[in-house]
Request: fold
Amino acid sequence: QSALTQPASVSGSPGQSITIACTGTSSDVGSYYPVSWYQQHPGKAPKLMIYEGTKRPSGVSDRFSASKSGNTASLTISGLQAEDEADYYCCSFAGSSTFVFGTGTKVTVL
Amino acid sequence: EVQLVQSGAEVKKPGESLRISCQGSGYSFAGYWIGWVRQMPGKGLEWMGIIYPANSDPKYSPSFQGQVTISVDKSISTAYLQWSSLKASDSAMYYCARFSGATFSAAWFDPWGQGTLVTVSS
Reply:
């Protein structure tokens, strides 16, 4: 059971849009299981940003959106803001009652 | 408010045993799976396992099967993560999180506990 693959880092200027990819296999991301996404600021616990593939919890900005195509899920942050600088992780069901996280992506706001 | 509160930081020696806890409040504890996640220093999140309080049924990641024990006491709305013999490589931050969703395979983690830092050093 290998971690889902994410780019180590993604950066953008304030106001720009960035996209974080999360690549798995046909056994996890590529299956019909929806992906969830989490934001983690330094020294803090992770926070749910996207669930059931595309839904945002109450309180999460609509600047965050997600999609999936084949074995790759994506998180897009539009109108990038300084407060978006954090680590982001995807997560998928991996079969046999187990889940797997992505390797994590550090988002830097230039 | 749905909340998970974890026990405090621990400093242990190699070979010692340890049990850390995660107490839920603000919801029907028995009806939601609780999961544990490891984060080693400077590293990413790793899914360790999950337990259903209503029947104390644990599921483990293959990477952690046999290395830790996940248990629960629903009478006090508390889940546990336990080691029988700690190693230096067990030093990490450990998070618990409530598992939500209409189906197990479509579920997500929310909310999360504040984390418990475990340091194992001689």
